[in-house]
Design a protein that fits this description.
CATH superfamily of the largest domain: P-loop containing nucleotide triphosphate hydrolases
Shape: globular
Order of helices and strands: EEEHEEEHEHHHHEHEHEEHH
Largest sheet: 6 strands, mixed
Number of domains: 2
Helix content: 25-40%
CATH class of the largest domain: Alpha Beta
Number of helices: 10
Radius of gyration: 20 Å
Oligomer: single chain
């Protein structure tokens, strides 16, 4: 766990849809700090993990009502920041890797051109300088033959390579905080380990703060420093990733018990028993 001052401070984050008279809350009073560390947000589908990440970047639909007691990034109040401030922040100091590159990359633009747009943002580089920077970024994310790959289109690369292209785009402006939304869920085991190794390396070498959204408890247990466990829009438990096996909340215990094991054979996996009090606490 880091002892450095928190880069991101979140207190009482609430996100709701619907009307003011009949709100439908999806995130309920989430609070946490994030420093130069790897913090995972875990929970089943619909628990509000991705909504928290998108709320930080103000990428939610207009009908979403977002409130918070505190939402501060490196001294900037995200609650009152103008759209101009947010446009300058996104991609430069705060970036997000989406879950599936197939839906995030432009299918009619070459990979080099897409990364080049991120490189040129806020800079005036010649075509040659931009191409050189693009190839350097592709090499940084362990893509061989970067010149050849830069000329390809998204449908011509594998899922693992597409995910690394997304990471290269996010690194173009050297962000301070990276939000990774299920970045390895569509990858096979070998490629997943490569991508995780790359993210780990970037956190260590670039001093990134990483918010890692996932449903894979085994993965975050060995990859992250801390874990926020979400249920029905709430953080029900926060603990060190290495201590997940000693979780105290019944929901976290139920998630851990439902994990299959190659060492201990069981005829039937236990079913998670939910308590209405967990969403009201």
């Amino acid at each position: 766990m880091t002892t450095a001052p928190a880069l991101l401070q979140v207190r009482g984050l609430q996100v709701a849809y619907g009307t003011p008279d009949a709100p439908a809350p999806v995130v309920r009073g989430v609070s946490f700090d994030l420093g130069r560390e790897k913090v995972a947000v875990v929970g089943e589908s619909g628990s509000g993990k991705t909504t928290v990440g998108r709320a930080l970047l103000r990428l939610l639909p207009r009908q979403a009502r977002v409130t918070a007691e505190q939402l501060q990034f490196d001294g900037l109040d995200l609650r009152t920041a103008s759209e101009r401030d947010m446009a300058a922040l996104r991609g430069r100091r705060l970036s997000m890797i989406m879950q599936d590159p197939k839906y995030s990359l432009n299918p009619v633009m070459s990979i080099g051109r897409q990364i080049g747009e991120a490189v040129q943002r806020g800079h005036r580089l010649s075509r040659a300088e931009c191409a050189e920077r693009v190839e350097a970024l592709l090499q940084r994310v362990r893509i061989h033959e970067p010149g050849r790959v830069a000329a390809l289109y998204p449908h011509e690369v594998s899922g693992g390579m597409g995910q690394r292209v997304m990471i290269a785009m996010m690194l173009a402006q050297r962000p301070q905080l990276l939000i990774a939304d299920e970045p390895t869920s569509a990858l096979d085991v070998a490629v997943r380990e490569e991508v995780l190794g790359l993210l780990d390396e970037l956190v260590a070498e670039e001093g990134l703060a990483l918010l890692f959204i996932s449903h894979d408890l085994n993965l975050v247990r060995r990859f992250c420093d801390r874990v926020l466990v979400m249920y029905a829009g709430r953080v029900v438990e926060t603990l060190a990733a290495a201590d997940l096996a000693q979780a105290r909340h019944p929901y976290t215990q139920g998630l851990m018990a439902a994990l299959p094991s190659l060492r201990h054979r069981r005829a039937v996996l236990p079913v998670l028993q939910r308590d209405a009090a967990w969403s009201a606490a």
